[in-house]
Write a structure and sequence with these properties.
The complex is a heterodimer of chains A (about 475) and B (about 270). Chain A is α/β, with parallel strands linked by helices and about 475 residues long. Chain A folds into two domains: about 170 residues, 3-Layer(aba) Sandwich (Rossmann fold); about 160 residues, Distorted Sandwich (Coagulation Factor XIII, Chain A, domain 1), CATH 2.70.50. Chain A contains 14 helices and 18 strands. The longest helix of chain A has 16 residues. The radius of gyration of chain A is 26 Å and the shape is globular. Chain B is mainly α and about 270 residues long. Chain B has one domain. Chain B contains eleven helices and no strands. The chains are: A alpha/beta (about 475), B mainly alpha (about 270). Chains A and B meet through helix 2 and helix 4 of A and helix 2, helix 5 and helix 11 of B.
Chain lengths: ~475, ~270
């Protein structure tokens, strides 16, 4: 995989310097003491803790993650999983019981949305007050006031006491203020769903702008679509445990799978649940060597040792383990190894998997995801052929998808999975291999967008009557 | 701890002012209630003690009918600010839970905001009283009166420290608020504000225990300071200042310890 990364397309900037870590959370645990009554707390205090009356509730267990500058990091999970507690700790409202976190730069949080607002005074005065709370002199806020008000579209009601505002108006004003104070880290907790569709879109556009200027975002949402679309990485919190940490796509998949009926019992996904670790890469390399040594001859022609490489970097691996994907290879028409393709060229996607258990109705699926997280194309064997595959325990499976790359120029990530097609829908193994495929503009391009739909055009001019 | 207050000084001041302005918002008289309420209280005490009970301060200070009113005001205005700061402080963390649960603001600033509000009202009412004393009671103005300002600062600094301790405890035990309502009333009558200390100095019926209790009461010392500067126009000795500073610093040190001990849990409980 390292080889592929160093081969940047010619028009891309030279290899970017490693981005600095802005948020680092280490072994963070948060416990709450629950007392049955205030009297029992008094009893414990009076005896200097000898009479222990409280029970400990652990809201967060040993959380670890890092977010780099400019990255959007999502946190998903069911209600009560500890998402808000985590954000409150990162904002500095709550204190961790053990462990630590470090945030470089100024943090503002949409948790605070409108809470700093005094209902009796006007929107304008509230902006200045809240600005003061965020550490700005009134003059600094006043300079930005026009832009903040214009963004919130509240020009007509800015001098009215905020108690006459609707919920949506308060949210708009608050978001607008927080978005214009240019924080280094911006924490958004579910709040954006309050505004109407148009404003919500505007918020996300603003977030994109902030990302470009290097702002880091921590985003908690039940809107998995938004997490997929805007976040680079995400964490799935379940009962205060980090159940998954990896790409946003994979994290939301794991979350959905876990929340599906019986999903938790199937105990998916413990593997790869920590982000890329050097130790994991090393182990994967060793495994690759071991597997390629025991491969049948006809398969080792396609899958050399380098094709096992990417799987060491796989972040979001989930599945029951009935089938294990061992290698991914992309070949050109001549069967040669290639990462950079021209638009419209043919490629074949080879998957190698091993089946420790047998399965009756297996299928294989692949999808190409662009850098914005949009699935550009995807299909599976069952859909294409109407057939499923029977896999016997202990066999190797080789799947090939031959495709014409009629796609827009971009870097694509390959998601590949083996699963059950009989209706149960179990996932046997699902991997995401980043930057495996680079499509670049080789010569003339006759389209824009992400899909090159076959098209003809006719233009005629007609003289006026 | 003081650094935090300095950092948020603008916020504290703005909030204290806004609070004075908005405390009676929705009423017709508005912020005038800030003046009416203490004026009414003063009138009641003055009528009862001066007119009905005929209290006079014959031997010291201004003479005549106003003498008792001057005595009363010199202590009562400061006491009112003290008591109000204490009661409002005790409720301040619970009352501002909305902020504390969502903003990474230090706890102290909400207590400091109440103390600042108390200081401002007391400073203004004492200034008005000085005006009254000089123009109507023909007592003053004196340079010694200027001592009242640093004294008020120390007194409310003491209230701030004590208020912070009470505010922290009130988060865990909401009993503190009703308990303080009773305590402050009792404390008021244990401090010579309305009555005069000399009624216990009667040589025929001495009350040594009462005098000792007075001296254990920190508020007594501060209030005596106000009597000395405003009424007796004395320059206070350095030893008195040292006592005030020691009491204010001491209670603030204790408050800092209490806050450090409770801090992590306060937000968990709110």
């Amino acid at each position: 995989m390292t080889a592929a990364l160093s081969l940047q397309p010619s028009d891309a900037p030279p290899i970017a310097p490693p981005r600095e870590t802005i948020v680092a959370v280490r072994n963070l645990t948060k416990q709450f003491k629950h007392y049955p009554s205030p009297a029992s707390r008094l009893g414990e205090w009076m005896t200097l803790g000898k009479l222990r009356r409280h029970t400990v509730f652990t809201a967060l267990h040993d959380i670890n993650f890092e977010v780099k500058k400019g990255e959007f990091f999502g946190i998903v999970g069911p209600n009560g999983s500890g998402k808000s507690t985590l954000l409150k700790i990162l904002t500095g409202v709550l204190m961790p019981t053990t462990g630590s976190y470090k945030i470089t730069g100024r943090v503002t949080s949409l948790l605070e949305l409108g809470t700093g607002f005094n209902p009796e005074i006007s929107g304008r005065e509230n902006l200045i007050n809240s600005g003061r709370l965020l550490g700005f002199e009134p003059e600094q806020t006043k300079q930005k006031l026009e832009r903040i008000v214009a963004f919130a579209e509240l020009e007509d009601s800015i001098d009215v006491p905020t108690k006459y505002y609707s919920t949506g108006m308060v949210v708009r004003l608050a978001f607008s203020l927080f978005a214009h104070v240019e924080p280094d880290v911006f924490i958004v907790d579910e709040a954006l769903s309050v505004g109407d569709v148009a404003f919500s879109r505007k918020c996300f556009q603003r977030l994109d702008l902030m990302r470009e200027s290097g702002c880091t975002l921590l985003f908690v949402s039940h809107d998995l679509g938004a997490v997929r679309k805007y976040c680079d990485h995400a964490m799935f919190l379940d009962h205060g445990h980090c159940a998954f940490l990896g790409s946003a796509n994979a994290a939301t998949d794991v979350y959905l799978e876990a929340m599906s009926p019986g999903g938790r019992e199937r105990r998916l996904a413990p593997e790869g649940s920590k982000a890329v670790q050097p130790a994991g890469v090393r182990a994967a390399r060793e495994e690759a060597r071991r597997i390629s040594a025991q491969l049948p001859a006809e398969l080792s022609a396609v899958f050399d040792e380098t094709t096992f490489g990417p799987l060491g970097n796989v972040s979001g691996r989930i599945g029951t383990g009935a089938v294990r994907i061992a290698a991914v290879a992309i070949r050109d028409e001549a069967g040669k190894r290639k990462e950079h393709f021209g638009i419209g060229e043919s490629a074949s996607i080879h998957l190698l998997a091993h089946a420790p258990q047998s399965s009756e109705h297996a299928t294989v699926s692949v999808q190409l995801v662009n850098r914005l997280g949009v699935v550009a194309w995807g299909t599976n064997h069952h859909r294409l052929t109407g057939k499923t595959v029977r896999l016997d325990a202990g066999t190797w499976v080789h799947a090939v998808f031959r495709v014409t790359l009629d796609l827009g120029p971009d870097h694509y990530t390959l998601d590949a999975s083996f699963g059950d097609a009989s209706g149960e829908g179990h996932v046997f193994d699902r991997i995401t291999a980043a930057d495996l495929l680079v499509l670049e503009v080789k010569s003339h391009v006759d389209f824009e967008g992400i899909a090159r739909i076959p098209a003809v055009s006719e233009v005629q001019s007609h003289p006026g009557a | 701890m003081q650094m935090v207050l300095w950092k948020y000084r603008r916020f504290i001041l703005a909030n204290a002012l806004a609070d004075l302005r908005h405390r009676f918002s929705g009423s017709v008289a508005g912020y005038l209630w800030n003046v009416f309420v203490p004026l009414a209280q003063l009138t009641v005490f003055a009528v009862i003690f001066s007119v009905l009970m005929g209290n006079r301060m014959d031997d010291e200070g201004p003479s005549g009918t106003f003498s008792f009113i001057v005595y009363l005001c010199s202590g009562l205005l400061a006491w009112n600010a003290f008591a109000e700061t204490l009661l409002r402080s005790a409720a301040s963390l619970v009352g501002n839970a909305g902020y504390l649960k969502k903003l990474p603001l230090p706890e102290q600033i909400f207590v400091a905001q109440e103390a600042t509000g108390g200081f401002l009202t007391a400073a203004i009412s004492i200034a008005l009283f000085c005006l009254f004393s000089a123009l109507i009671a023909h007592w003053g103005p004196f340079w010694e009166w200027l001592q009242a300002l640093p004294l008020l600062l120390l007194f409310l600094g003491f209230a701030y420290g004590l208020g912070l301790i009470l505010a922290c405890l009130n988060v865990f035990f909401r009993d503190v608020q009703p308990f303080m309502n009773v305590t402050v009333l009792l404390w008021f009558w244990l401090t010579p504000v309305v009555y005069m200390e000399r009624i216990f100095h009667d040589p025929k019926a001495p009350h040594p225990i009462v005098i000792r209790v007075f001296h254990l009461n920190p508020a007594y010392h501060y209030i005596e300071g106000f009597h000395q500067t405003l009424l007796h126009r004395q320059w206070m000795p350095l030893s008195s200042w040292a006592t005030y500073i020691a009491m204010t610093l001491g209670v603030n040190l204790l408050a800092a310890l209490v806050l450090r001990r409770c801090r992590a849990e306060i937000r968990d409980v709110l």
